[in-house]
Amino acid sequence: MNSHTNRAARSTIFAGLLLPVIACLPFIHSAARADVVFTGLDERQELNVRAFLSLATTRCDSARWRVDRLFRDADKGIRNALQALGYYEAVISKSLRWDEECWHAEFDIQAGEPVRLGKVDIVVDGPAASDDLFLQRVSAERPAAGDTLDHGRYTAFKASIMRAAMHAGYFDADFEHSTVTVNRDKRSADVDMQFHSGPKYRFGSVSFTAGILREELLLGYTDIRPGNPYSARLISELYEALNGSSYFETVSISTEPANPADNTVPVTVSLTPAKRRVYSIGGGYTTDSGLNGRLGYSNRRMNIRGHQFDSRLFLSEVRSELNAAYRWPRNDPRREWYSVTAGIQHQETSTSENDTYKIGVQRTRNLGKDWLETRYIDYALEDFTVADQDTDSQLLMFGSSWETTKGRELGRSAKGYRFSFDLRGASDKLVSDTSFVQLRSTAKWIRSMGANTRVIARAHLGLTAIDDVSTLPASVRFFAGGDQSIRGYEFESLGPVNDDGDVIGGTHLVDASLEFDHRVWDKWAIAAFVDSGSAFNDSDIEFSTGVGVGLRWYSPIGPIRIDFAHPLDDPDKSVRVHIGFGPDL
Question: Fewer Cβ within 10 Å of end Cβ, the chain: N or C?
Fold first, then answer.
């Protein structure tokens, strides 16, 4: 019977660490060319033996005396490598031969039956003994009776306990003792481990780099408060929140030095401000809007209270607009912001023309981790022309929207979704020229079918409760057709018509699309799709359908799409080419 103390176990365990395996991988390939052959071992056993055996990495041109010595001593290295994995009864047969070009070693090894764990006694004392979260972490990787003895796993388990202790704030934690006792005759091993957590530390003072933002605002980015129990999760959440705030170029958080006198750790946050003013310029082409250009200006830190300003100018053949927003955080800047917005827009399509002037206020907040809610009040003046109707309108709209997105990427999204809902309305008894309630919703869903093929589904739904559609401004009516609707038809060219056959827009909208795309080479994919839908009033639905094929290039600036779509409802119409770009979601 062999009894290994903590020190002896460490020396044996060292031989079984997986790190040497990883570190020696480049040499394993070279050793294989030198013709060192092992038979009788499984893949994991052979990897560990090669990683520990110096002979396996010796070159063909090494001195003969050195090769002979390493070959002679190989048995010891093989046994140590296998014992680290729990195999103590290895039987080794070996041979070495030389030829004019190199030397050749062969090892036939029978590892035998492994040593298995018998009694596993792991005791945690101190405050951590009643810490359910800590105990769950320990239990997740705890070795169990009947497992094969693996010194590498044993060492990793001890390390995981220490990591969990540091993560939970037990900075004085240590092992009272940890022993592995191996009985070769019975092929069994007992584990006896006692871990003392020491006191759980608490947060001390919380300080931030001064002069960038108010400390009250910065404290809103964290739930850490002096005196609260230490949690590494809260440190990580603070880092992520500050790093994603757009205020800072770099974020660094230190929790040293700990104070053992009162068991506290300070939190020191070092911040480097991001560039305050940001300018952007861009351009492109889409079938719906034609040639377009964009200009942008943002002030990401107008004052120490964290107020921000953002403005965007968009110019195109079909739609041009200028928008601006002034926003500021509430008590919890991670979840809630207020904004004042203003904008003007001109849009001219084959079915309508309108000029809109809008001002509004809104409150945006996170609902949990996934949903973003925006409540808003917008006042809009609109001059519009639809068919033979040429008039103006004013609306004071109250609304709420909800949006969630998962899997959004600049490149090719393997899976994900986007859902949005917007409920708004106005009353002719409160400033507005008409009364209505309207729901707009969109959905997009992406799933992979194998490594290179995806299915993409998209849908839009719009519902309006109103007595007379003619009182609705053009921007609030529903039209169908275009890049993001029913390809094969011109942008907003589909909808209910008047007695002269002119499209006047509808109170309701439904359209859907199903697309398959297949990557054919690196950043290139081909697609096939079908779109169908209708803009309509009441129940007078006439669906229009388009089918087509497309080409996708996942460029460094995002996906670029070229679609060739044909309308099934009107075979005489030619194929329309749609060009667009932007993330899949």
Answer: N
The CA–CA distances, whole Å, from 564 to 166, 291, 461, 557, 581 equal 59, 19, 25, 22, 15
The beta strand positions in 287-351, using DSSP E, are 290-299, 308-316, 319-329, 336-348
CA 60/CA 74 separation, integer angstroms: 17
Q: What is the pLDDT, as a whole number, of residue 583?
A: 86
What percent of the chain is modeled with pLDDT above 70?
A: 94
Sign of the Cα pseudo-torsion (475, 478, 479, 483, in order):
positive
- Tell me the three state secondary structure of residue 291: strand
At which residue do the structure tokens 């590892």 appear? 111
CATH code for position 569: 2.40.160.50
pLDDT tens, residue by residue, 233-260? 999 999 999 999 999 999 999 998 989 9
Q: Is the pLDDT of residue 20 over 80?
A: no
Provide the pLDDT for residue 464. Answer: 96
Residue written as tokens 């955080």? Answer: 329
Q: Which domain holds residue 320?
A: 277-581
User: Are both 158 and 246 inside the same structural domain?
Assistant: no
**Per-residue pLDDT at 3:** 38
Sheet of 2-4: strand order equals 2-4, 174-183, 188-196, 116-125
Same-domain check for residues 438 and 349: yes
The band of 149, judged by pLDDT with boundaries at 50, 70 and 90, is: very high
pLDDT number for residue 34: 60
Distance of alpha carbon 67 from alpha carbon 51, whole angstroms: 17
Q: Which of 273, 304, 325 is the last residue of a domain?
A: 273
Per the structure, how many domains does the chain have?
Answer: 4
Strand partners, 270: 252
At residue 278, the 3 state secondary structure works out as strand
CATH code where residue 43 lies = 3.10.20.310
List Cα–Cα distances, 30 to 24, 25, 68, 75, in angstroms: 10, 9, 19, 21
350, amino acid identity? S
The residues near 19 (Cβ < 8 Å, ≥ 6 apart) are none
Q: Cα-Cα-Cα-Cα dihedral of 57, 62, 68, 71, to 10°?
A: 0
102 and 233 in a common domain: no
Q: Are residues 368 and 232 in the same domain?
A: no
**What is the rounded average pLDDT for all residues in the chain?**
89
